[in-house]
Specification:
Number of helices: 1
Helix content: 55-70%
Structural class: mainly alpha
Largest sheet: none
Order of helices and strands: H
Shape: elongated
Oligomer: single chain
Distance between the termini: 57 Å
Length: 47
């Protein structure tokens, strides 16, 4: 099976350093929210 042009995604433009910092900050905040929910769930289970 050969790769056709339809299966190759278009090139993604490189992110600037500022965009990378913003994306990492957003991911970090999302991870903190998930960890806080997990912590709350663990505390509720322990009660």
């Amino acid at each position: 099976m050969s790769i056709t042009a339809e299966l190759v995604p278009p090139p993604v433009p490189a992110m600037s350093v500022e965009q990378q910092v913003v994306a990492l900050a957003q991911a970090g905040r999302a991870a903190q929210r998930v960890l806080a929910r997990m912590d709350d769930a663990a505390k509720a289970t322990a009660l």
